[in-house]
Amino acid sequence: MSDFIACTIRSLPDHLLIPAAREACRINPANAPALRAVGDVPLPPAHIAVLTGKYWGAGGVHLSISFLDSPPADLRARILAHANAWGKTANVKFSEVASGGQVRIARTPGQGYWSYLGTDVLQVPAGQPTMNLDSFTTQTPDGEFYRVVRHEVGHTLGFPHEHLRQELVQKLDVEKTVAYFLRYDGWSRATTMQQVLTPISQASITGRGTEPTAADQDSIMCYQLPGSITVDGQPIRGGADIDAADAAFAAKIYPSAAVPPAGVRALVARMLADPAFAAANGAWADAWLAAHGGG
Ligand SMILES: [Zn+2]
What is the reported pLDDT for 30? Predict the structure, then answer.
């Protein structure tokens, strides 16, 4: 674990918190905090901003990606492919652009791995990174692309850290955890308290609904933490790839376009039987039928 680089979720500066909360609610009204939960007492705007979700809307996540430091084409393609791994089950698609992407990836060594969360990405000033992949190169072991790139992209999709669930935070010995992150990541006590030891509030995981779900130690959003810092000596396994629960959750909050009813597919198939229609529309209609479950 000597080269263990932990991930931090980047927070916007204070002056951008309220505009970010407003934008998050505009993009996805479900991000508005459930104010009923805190009664009828009006909350100060800054407090509301903290309670506001960061999820993109049910229309899915279609974002452009650019790189700030001109990595070679094969590295760019590899990072993009891992980002799009979330699209296997969910309506998620990242497309590379030469510059000025909505997601901007830097590789600044020594800064660690980090990303802004969900809709906050759009508030980051132009030209500044929204994600850092430390010193990723084509020589980086393949497993790290699964563990790190997919994890950071999960933050871009709005997913918080799974190890901040109350039931996992409770497993950690506070002093041992503080010492561990100081030693391996140089983190101050305050950073470790904020990033590892403060359980996430139920309000900030809006996307999981009101039903509490069990913490998933195999989630790609969960840190791997050694037994030496847990109360019971059992490690927290941590995810090495998008697991089935992650994939299902992503599909639930960013559902792929619904398959059209069989009647619509049959209608297109019938229209294709008309030679004039087929001559003019065959190419797209065949592709459409193939993409939507055949005739
Ligand atoms: Zn993270």
Answer: 82
Which of 121, 158, 171 has the alpha carbon at shortest distance from 254? Answer: 158
pLDDT (0 to 100) of residue 260? 63
4 C-alpha to center of ligand 1: Å? 13
The beta strand positions in the chain, using DSSP E, are 7-10, 61-67, 92-96, 103-106, 113-116, 131-133
- 32 C-alpha to ligand 1 centroid (Å): 23
Q: What are the structure tokens assigned to 175, written together?
A: 């002093």
Which element (helix H / strand E) includes 7? strand 7-10
In degrees and rounded to multiples of 5, residue 196 shows phi and psi of -125, -35
Who surrounds ion ligand 1 at CB < 5 A? 7
The rounded average pLDDT for each run of 10 residues, N- to C-terminus, in the chain (295 residues) is 73 87 87 59 62 84 96 97 96 96 96 94 95 96 96 94 89 96 91 89 47 78 93 94 92 78 76 84 73 53
Could you tell me the distance, in angstroms and rounded to a whole number, from the CA of residue 196 to the centre of ligand 1? 10
SS3 103: strand
| Distance in Å, CA 39 to ligand 1 centroid | 32
Q: Are 151 and 131 in contact (CB under 8 A)?
A: no
